[in-house]
Every structure is written in C-alpha cells, then in structure tokens.
Amino acid sequence: MTDTSLPMQKTANSRYNRGSRIFDVLSRAGLLIAILAVFIYGAISSNVFFTTGNLVNVLTSMAIIGIVVVGMTFVLVVGSLADLSVPATIAGGAILSLALQPVVGPVPAFALAVGFAGACGLVNGLLVGYVGINPIIATLGVGTVVLGIVQAAVGGVIVYGNDPAVAALVKGRVLGVPVIVLVFVVVAIIGHFVLSRSFWGRWTMATGGNYKAAEASAVPVRAVKAGAFVISGLCAGLSGGLLGLTLQSARPEVGAGYEFASITAVVVGGISILGGLGSIPRAIAGLVFVQTLTNVMVLQGVRTPIQGFVLGLLIAVAVALDVALRKRGV
Amino acid sequence: MPITSLIIRYRVAIILAATLIVACIWVPGFASLSTASLGLDRGATIGIIAIGLTVLLIAGQIDLSGGAVFALSGIVAIGLQPSIGIWPAAFVGILAGAACGVVNGLLSVVFKVNSLVATLATMLIFRAIAHWITNSQPVAGVDIMFSLAMAKIYLDLFTVRSGLFLIALVLLHFWLTRTVSGRNLFAVGSNATAAESSGIAANVVLFFSFVFASTLAGLAGVLQSLTANTGSPVFGEDLTVMVIAAVVVGGTRLEGGRGSALGTLGGVLTIASLTTAMEFQSVPAYIQQVVTGLILILLVVLDRAVRRQSYSHAATISQS
In chain B, which residue's Cα lies nearest the Cα of A315? Predict the structure, then answer.
C-alpha cells in the first residue's frame, strides 16, 4: 500500500513545487517587467501620463478596486473561484452609507453599510462553506437577491449624500496622499499579515491547497471557506461605502464591473484559480498592471468596449497559462 | 417514505403546479389563453438557451456567457440584414453563436480552464465585442413586417419561437433518452475518466456540448432580435441567472450526470409563469430579481439536502 502510494505522492509533490517555483519567478519578474513597460510606454506616448493629477486619479481608482482585490484574493486562495456578489455588496455599501446618513449620522451609517455587506458575505460563506453549493452559483444568486433588496429599500432611485463635511474628509489628502489610498494601504497591510503571517492565513492556504488533507489535519475548513467570503463582503462594503461618499451619490449599478476588475487583477497577479497559492502583494502587482494599462488605454483614446475585451482576454490568458504551467510542472 | 420519494421524483411538476395555482389566485385573469401564449413566448427565449445549458450541465460543465452570445448573435443577424438579406443574416447570426461556442470549448476543453472561469472571461469578451461593433447603440432591422410575422400568434397559442422551443425540446428529449450519443453525454458528465476508459471520446463530447449551448443561445438571440427588429448590446444581461434558475428548477444537477428535457420544460414554464404573473401585478423589476435569485438559491440548497439523504456518504464527500 505504502509502496505504491509513496512514489506517486513524491512525483506529484515535486512537480507541484517545481512548477510553482518557476511560475513564481516567471510571474513575479514577468509582471514587474510588464508594469515597467506599461509605465515607459505611457510616459513616451502621452505627456499627461506622468502628471500628478493623472497619477493621483489612477491611485484613487486603484485604491477603490484594490480594497475589493484584497477580499477577492482570500476567496481565490481558499479555492472558491470567485465572489460574483461584489457588485451587489458594493452597491449595498454605497447606498446604505448615504441613505442612512440622515437617520443615524455618517459614521454609524458607514459602519452599518460595511456590516450589511459583511452579512451578505456571511450568507455566501454559509452557502458555499457549509451547504456546499458551487461558489459561482451561490454568489450569483445572493448578489441578485441583495441588489434587489437594496433597490427595494430605497425605492429603486439614486441616493444622494447630504453631509459635505464627510465628503470633504474622504476626498481629502494627508501629506498629499488621498485618504482613500491610505485606507487601501491599511487594508492591504492587514490583509497581507492575515494571509501570510497568521494562523487564519495558513488555514486558508491549506484549505485551498488540499481540502481533504486540511480537513484531516483538523483545520476548520468550512469556517475558513465561509470566512473568505465574509472578508470579501466586508472589503466590498468598505470599498462601496468609500465610493458612495466620494461620489456623493449611489446608483444600484455603481458596483457593476468591479467583480471582473478585481478577478482580473488577482489572476493576472499570478494567483491560481485552483486555490492554495497566492499573496496580497502579488494581487496588488496584478492590480497595478491592469490599472495602469487601462489608464494608458484611456489616455490613448481606446474605447471602453475594447478595454473590456482586453480585460476578458487577460483573464483567459492568465488562467490558461496558470493551468498549463501547473499541469506540466514546467 | 414512498410518499417523500414520489414528491422528490415529481418535484418539478409539483413546483410548477403550485406556481400556477398561486398565480391564478393572486392575479385576476391569469388563467386565459392569451396569458398562456404570452408566458410561453416569454419562456421560449429562456427555454431555448436552457436547452443548450441542460446539455452542458449534464456533461458537467457550465456556460455563463449565454447572455452575451444572445446579444452578439442578435446584433450580427440584424446588422448584416441590409447587405445579405434577412435569412442569410439570421443564419450567420446563429453561426456567430456557434463560433462563440468554439471559443468556449477551446478554452475549457483544450486549455483545461475551469469552465466557470473560462465562460466568465468570454462573457466579458463577447459583451465587449457586442458593444464594440455597435458603438453601444441599438441596431435597427430593415423590415418591420418580418418582425410582426415573428410575433404573430398561431392557433391562438404559439408564436414562431415558442413553437421552435417546443420542437427543440421534444428533439432533446429523444436525443437524451433514446440515442447512444445522448447516453454518452450522461456517462461523460457522471465520470469523464470512466467514460474515456470505456471508449467514449470525452473531450469531443465536452467540446461539442459547448458549441451546442452557444449555438442555441445564438438562436435565441437571433429570434429575439428578429422579433424586436432590433439588435442591442445590452440584450440578455439578466438572462444568465434566469436560465440557470430555470434549468436547476428542472432538476438538472450542477455537478453533471443528471438532467432531463422534461424537467427543463417544467423549470422554464415555472420561471416564465412567475415572471409573467409578477409583471401582471406590476411588481418592480428588482423584486422580480429577488424572487428569481431566492428560488435559485432555495432549490440548489434543497437539491443538496435531498442528495445528502438519498446518496451514500462517500458520494457526498466526493462533491466537496
């Protein structure tokens, strides 16, 4: 019994390691070179690219998506493919943080909005982790329901903010850095430490890497899976709340597209869709690449649909590459 | 126990009957031939896509790009009308759907990308192409009379597309239950490796399932665009959830290996009568979304619960 199973384990194991190490170096160096190339191209092709105004704009939009990316990384690493309820939870965060302002005051409204998004994440997590439903179907269904509920709650109209002081605070800068970017940096650092330095992060990697082995090693796999969706929900709610306060208005469609933008960033960052591998810095590197690329495309006058086309292509290519490299063990 | 197993066996029919009864009580004038015709016509769009998805789900794969293919094919069919005529344009539109299926099949089968992720990416790509070639504007067709003919009701009940849907459904039923290739599909869906060992070319079956699903989504899109005399890049955006809900209500399993044409018919009719009833009562679109989403989640949860009871422990574990 052991005779037959041991060599198989060995080969599988070494292949896995070798593949991932080479892939690691490739994706890290490759991504950095790609980011550099985009920057250089941007600087040469457009004289607006390296202005402070443009870079601050890029940073701000990057920060809003980046907060979502941190949560999405947990979902991918735990092996749950993707959280498609993100547009709904972002819209929930944005709408609630504005709509509740007159009722309970700005800070509690923001907290309630983030809490609501976390609760949606919990529903996703229970469905995926404990009931065992396919994550894409569960989050698609929950997202549809949540978006409907949020719209029904405000009567299907656009919500406006009425507290200029809070808006000014969110749009403000500390030492020249926008507040939103600072929030993103804090979230990213916390996310990084949780994923790479804490027991929760180790459990997340173990669950995503080998569900049964993790379960056998007494990792609370169901709770870890559910937790990833709660983290993703909280992050999306935070991002949505900040987005709502920045725009001072929130439509139900405000979060549309954020799910794909964040998934693209994570998979382009070289994080496997199969789970078990990944880190927040890599996801953010992917985000920087995608966002600067989008920015350069916008500056070049490339139309929005083509940008969507490029994003879709990036997802497909990044995932196909990941699968090919892991399968063959390069 | 026999009663519960009977309920489980005929749950699709029970859900459909319950929906219809509730709708008849709740909505005055629901029980009429014109309502049935309207509901059937509405169901036909969902239904034609659902037929493709049923096959794909039985094979153990999924396609999220159906809504985008729906829009793209419609645009192609309408956009080419001035240059090559209505019928050839419609044909090319369906071919465009098939081409999308080839892309999905290549990504999922040849490059081994998880079909959920692959079709998520292609959904983005196809939708982007639809916006791209139309400049995000709706395209108008050349002949309004043609679309009136498409919307005409025959025998007081059927429109062209609801008739086509029912014919396609009967064909699907025979294909799945009476032919060798239909049986192979189930074999591949339950266990691709075992099917491969017993001499079925599993990858070929999977590939053509993707092509089949997208071709039917294309067909549905062409029919919709011809009826509306318009092709629009925003068509079919909320279709994905509805179609998956319809197929899942019909008892087809997301994990593959199980499903039937009649079940899908039941699921489609349930979703169609639900949305028609809600529209009659002017329920806002977002409440309809909540209901559709809730039904989808409830049924998937129920499906898991039922299976935990009726299957062996090992089978349950292998699902996770």
Answer: B121
List the 126-155 stretch of B: residues with Cβ below 8 A of A.
127-132, 136
Mean pLDDT, range B195-215, rounded to an integer: 90
CB B124 within 8 A of CB A311: yes
Report the distance separating Cα A238 and Cα A71, nearest Å: 11
User: What residue ranges in A168-264 does DSSP mark as E strands?
Assistant: 173-174, 177-178, 249-250
Chain B residue closest to A82 (CA)?
B117
Helices of type H across chain B: 2-9, 11-26, 33-58, 66-79, 81-84, 86-105, 115-134, 144-151, 160-178, 180-190, 192-197, 202-228, 239-249, 261-280, 285-310, 313-319
B31 touches chain A (CB under 8 A): no
Structure tokens at A142: 């929950």
Helix B33-58 / helix B160-178 crossing angle, nearest 10 deg: 40
Nearest to A135 by CA among A270, A277, A275: A275
User: Which residue carries 């509901």 as its tokens?
Assistant: B39
Which residues, 6+ apart, have CB-to-CB distance to A58 below 8 Å? A291, A292, A295
Over residues A297-314, the mean pLDDT reads 83
Q: List the single residue in B107, B129, B241 with the smallest CB-CB distance to A144.
A: B241
In this prediction, residue A330 has a pLDDT band, given cuts at 50, 70 and 90, of very low
Using CA coordinates, name the residue in chain A closest to B133.
A305
Alpha-carbon gap, residue A229 to B227, rounded angstroms? 42
Question: Does B123 contact chain A (CB < 8 Å)?
Answer: yes
> Which chain A residues contact residue B292 at CB under 8 A?
144
Q: What is the pTM of this model?
A: 0.83
| Euclidean distance between CA atoms B310 and B303, whole angstroms | 11
- Chain A interface includes B84 (CB < 8 A): no
Report yes or no: B48 and B197 within 8 Å, Cβ to Cβ. Answer: no
Closest partner residue to B111 (CB to CB) among A140, A315, A324 is A324
B299 touching A, CB under 8 A? no
Half-sphere exposure of B85 (CA within 13 A, CB side): 2
Asked if the Cβ–Cβ distance from B128 to A145 is below 8 Å, we say no
Alpha-carbon span A118 to A126, nearest angstrom: 12
- Residues B81, A57: Cα–Cα separation, whole Å: 44
Give the CA distances from residue B185 to residues A57, A82, B59, B318, in Å, rounded to whole numbers and listed in that order. Answer: 51, 28, 6, 21
Task: Look at B111 and A315 and tell me if their CB atoms are within 8 Å.
Answer: no
Closest listed residue to residue A129, CA positions, set A258, A231, A269:
A231
> If you search the block for the tokens 């002017």, which residue do you land on?
B282
Over residues A161-166, mean pLDDT: 78
**What CA dihedral angle connects A216, A220, A222 and A228, to 10 degrees?**
-120
A150-189 residues touching B, CB cutoff 8 A: 151-152, 156
- Give the total residue count for chain B: 320
- ipTM comes to 0.77
